[in-house]
Structures are given as C-alpha cells and as structure tokens.
C-alpha cells in the first residue's frame, strides 16, 4: 500500500470464515493429492503452531521484526515520517527508477504504524493458514514476494504515466509501504486453486472457502476505490492492490492442472510458473523505466 505523510492507509478486512479445510478430509491422503506432506502437517498441528504453516509464520515474523526494529531505532510507531519509511525500505518511484529496485520487495515488509501492521498481519495470517496447505511453505513465500512486487510495479507504472500525462512529477515522490499488495495476491491465487474440484476435500466446503476469499477481496477493493471519490482522510494505493490481486489470479491458473498430478509434478510446475513470473515482472519493470 502507498501512503503520503498526510494520508494514512485504510484497514483491510480479513476474510470471514477463512478456516482451513475441515477435518472431514479423506484419510489417508491419497498419493495423487496436491501435497500429502502439507495436508498431514495441517492436521497434526494447531493453526496457532508455526509448524502448521511455517512459510506464513516466517513472513509474519519478518514483518513484525522490521516494525520492532524501526520502533526501537527512533521511528514513531504510530506516525512514522516519510523519511523514516524510506530509510527502512519503503517504495518510492523516483528512487526505484534511479537504481533502487530492491524497494519493490522491501516495501512489502514496512508498515506505517502499528494499526497498519496489525490489520495486514491479521489478514496475512488468515489467508496463509488457509492457503499454505495448497501451495506449500516455499510457494507461500514465493507468492508473497511475486505478488507484492507486482503490486508495487503497477503502482510505479501508474505514477510514471501520471507524471508523463499530467506533467506532474510529484507522483514520482509518493511513498508506498505495506504488505497489502501481497495479501491481495494470496487471495487471488486462493480463489483459483480453491476452484479445483479434484482436491481431496468436500466440494461444498471448498466452495464456501472460495466464496469467503472472494468477498474479502471485493469488499476491500471497493473500500479502496471508494476513497477516490469520497474524501475520508486516507489514501489507499489501489494500483498496488489491483496489481497484487491480478498477479495472484494469474499465478493460480498454471498450477491447477498439476495440483492432483503428484507432488513432484506440482512442485515442478510451481518452479516453472514462478520463474516465468519473475521474467515477466523484470520485463514490465524495464518497460516502465524506459518510459522516462
């Protein structure tokens, strides 16, 4: 999410009913299941146990650690300044275009105050607990990185085109931070993967979970878009949200055919999909940079 010093990001709402697939799953997990190891681990541990979703809990830990580090090194935990955010890796189009491309990723771990952190982490935990059994811990981390970067890239592209179209370079100086682009990305890929009727869970339960994630995404997109026409004192980076969400949807489609084709084939398809996504993001970033 992007922020300016005088406008704070709105909260995003966690999906209702976002609980892991029920215990009624067939046992033992069939060999052709999308990820037998993930399914077994999900049943063995409580959702509050980091071993149930190590990738999700690692992402939570990094986000919280960055916030604590900032707070203990002179940054106001309620209202950090733009300079504070930039010092710890927030996104700014001007800096990225001048070589600091790492900000597209580091910005996904920087938050504008405690409330912003808590709302994003609550949503990340809900979606991660639901989604990690479907894509595994490494897949969860990869999706977070890729969709977070995609959201920030789309936001950067919007800022560049706004500056060119309206001859207003101030858009290049807007500061963006937050995990919400990646959160929307996880929601996007879950909507696609939960559409697979071949998963070893009752279809009715999968449909309810998918509906819950769809509602989460739509409600928060509407909240963000409404701030364009209604001044409520906050500024939401809708480009980052949309970029993360659309990229998450796109990552899901190539994975569905291999979800029940055996673990090794599924993991191989993940690697190919994520590698192609990296290439596309690099080309997109190159195209944006060469517009100026």
Please supply descriptive tags for the structure shown above:
mainly alpha, Rhomboid-like fold, three-stranded antiparallel sheet, 10 helices, 3 strands
How are the SSEs ordered, and which strands pair?
Elements: E1 2-3, H1 36-44, H2 54-71, H3 82-87, E2 91-92, H4 93-97, H5 103-106, H6 114-166, E3 175-176, H7 180-193, H8 203-229, H9 238-255, H10 263-289
Antiparallel strand pairs: 1-3, 2-3
Structure description:
62% of the residues lie in helices and 2% in strands. The chain has a single domain, classed as Rhomboid-like (Rhomboid-like fold, Up-down Bundle), CATH 1.20.1540.10. It has a three-stranded antiparallel beta sheet with strand order 1-3-2. The two termini are 23 Å apart. By secondary structure, it is mainly α.
Please work out how many helical segments DSSP would assign: 10
CATH class membership: Mainly Alpha
| Total beta strand runs | 3
What strand order characterises the main sheet? 1-3-2
Specify Rg, calculated over alpha carbons: 19 Å
Largest sheet entry: 3 strands, antiparallel
In brief, what are we looking at here?
It is built from 10 helices and 3 strands, in the order βαααβαααβαααα. With 292 residues, the protein is mostly helical. It has a single domain (25-289), classed as Rhomboid-like (Rhomboid-like fold), CATH 1.20.1540.10.
């Amino acid at each position: 999410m992007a922020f300016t010093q005088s406008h704070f990001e709105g909260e995003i709402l966690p999906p209702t009913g976002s609980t892991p697939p029920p215990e009624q799953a067939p046992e033992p997990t069939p060999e052709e299941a999308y990820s037998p190891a993930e399914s077994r681990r999900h049943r063995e541990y409580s959702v509050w146990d980091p071993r149930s979703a190590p990738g999700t809990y690692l992402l939570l830990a990094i986000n919280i650690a960055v916030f604590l580090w900032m707070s203990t090194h002179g940054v106001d935990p309620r209202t950090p300044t733009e300079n504070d955010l930039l010092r710890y890796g927030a996104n700014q189009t001007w800096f990225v275009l001048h070589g600091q491309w790492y900000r597209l990723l580091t910005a996904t771990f920087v938050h504008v105050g405690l409330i912003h952190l808590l709302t994003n982490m609550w949503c990340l935990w809900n979606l991660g607990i639901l989604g990690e059994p479907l894509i595994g811990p490494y897949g969860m981390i990869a999706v977070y990185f890729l969709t977070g970067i995609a959201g920030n890239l789309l936001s950067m592209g919007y800022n560049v085109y706004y500056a060119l179209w309206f001859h207003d370079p101030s858009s290049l100086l807007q500061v963006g931070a937050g995990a919400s682009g990646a959160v929307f990305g996880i929601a996007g890929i879950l909507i696609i993967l939960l559409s697979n009727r071949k998963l070893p869970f009752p279809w009715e339960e999968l449909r309810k979970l998918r509906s819950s994630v769809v509602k989460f995404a739509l409600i928060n997109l509407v909240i963000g878009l409404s701030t364009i026409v209604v001044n409520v004192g906050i500024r939401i980076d809708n480009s980052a949200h949309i970029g993360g969400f659309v990229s998450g949807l796109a990552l899901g489609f190539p994975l569905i055919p291999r979800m029940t084709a055996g673990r090794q084939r599924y993991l191989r398809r993940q690697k190919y999909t994520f590698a192609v996504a990296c290439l596309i993001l690099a080309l997109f970033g190159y195209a944006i940079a060469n517009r100026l």
